[in-house]
Design brief:
Low-confidence stretches: none
Largest sheet: 12 strands, mixed
Strand content: 25-35%
CATH topology of the largest domain: Aminopeptidase
Number of strands: 12
Shape: globular
């Protein structure tokens, strides 16, 4: 008789989790990347999370992770709400956001019955993929007119400012000392992890781009930012290409990203690099975390 269980994963379950996630890597990057970075033990530190999975005959068929930053990340075509409840119960954290395939995010949004006035961001995104051997390198980068490089410690002040501006414009954050401190810490971490690039035109920084997740098989582009006064010059496209060229040189085979359904300029830029839309993805962020969410999920 086939046994079916829902439980919190523990160290030793990594191979089973990867066997489920890797075939759908394009919509599982946060789950795979965070698990590889921090493992399955949750101590509340950066990249740590509590992973609740449904298993059928010891094979994982769905998973939800509740991370250190209070976001629920979803990859669960079955028993989604029950898995969310198990993850939240195991982590003991409130819910600050939902990230995952759009149909799944929609189910959890309905279960949580969110107060719309508390929603900071609720966006359906186009999910894109690219085999890096097919990357189309922009002329300005190929010719050497502009150059991309990984950021260094001397770039932290500028990139902190840019990261904060991105958070306000793209994520609906409120500017202030707390956001600036969070952005500085994230920028310093990105220097250590070598995950952010800056584009220079005649030695002047003009755009930046990051990998919000990077694994051996793929990198996920995020945080692409060009100051408003420097836009419509191809800088965003070029800095993304520069980062992907470096990833390709280091043996990575695939690039993944998502961008808003209404962001036509970004879609055109990414499609010009060779990216193709393969589905959709959603992000919901809340201004104040939901502290009593279990009652709606149970």
């Amino acid at each position: 008789m086939e046994t079916t269980t829902i439980r919190v994963l523990k160290p030793g379950d990594e191979a089973a989790l990867e066997a489920f996630l890797l075939p759908q890597v394009e919509s599982s990057m946060f789950l795979i990347g965070n698990m590889r970075a921090a493992g399955l033990a949750d101590h509340g530190q950066t990249y740590h999370g509590t992973y609740a999975a449904k298993l059928e005959a010891e094979k994982i068929v769905g998973v939800v992770a509740h991370y250190w930053n209070q976001n629920l990340v979803l990859q669960a075509p079955v028993d989604l709400v029950a898995l969310c409840a198990e993850a939240v119960k195991g982590s003991g954290r409130p819910i600050q956001g939902l990230i995952g395939p759009s149909d799944q995010v929609g189910v959890v949004k309905e279960a949580l019955d969110m107060d719309r006035s508390n929603v900071q961001m609720d966006e359906t995104e186009k999910l894109y993929s690219l085999g890096l051997e097919d990357l189309v390198v922009p002329v300005n980068l190929a010719s050497g007119k502009v150059k991309g490089r990984r950021i260094e410690s001397g770039d932290v002040d500028l990139l902190t400012k840019w990261r904060a501006a991105y958070a306000v414009e793209a994520l609906g954050e409120e500017d202030g000392p707390q956001l600036r401190q969070q952005c500085r810490e994230a920028t310093e971490r990105s220097v250590r992890e070598k995950r952010t690039w800056v584009l220079e035109d005649d030695g002047r920084p003009v755009a930046c781009s990051s990998f919000n997740t990077a694994i051996e098989e793929a990198v996920q582009v995020g945080g692409v930012w060009t100051p408003p006064e420097l836009r419509r010059r191809g800088y965003g496209r070029a800095v993304v290409a520069a980062s992907l060229l470096d990833a390709r040189t280091e043996g990575v085979k695939n690039g993944i990203l998502f961008t808003g359904e209404d962001n036509i300029a970004a879609q055109r830029a990414y499609e010009a690099l060779g990216f193709r839309c393969i589905g959709d993805y959603s992000i919901v962020l809340l201004r104040s975390p939901l502290k009593n969410s279990l009652q709606n999920l149970s």
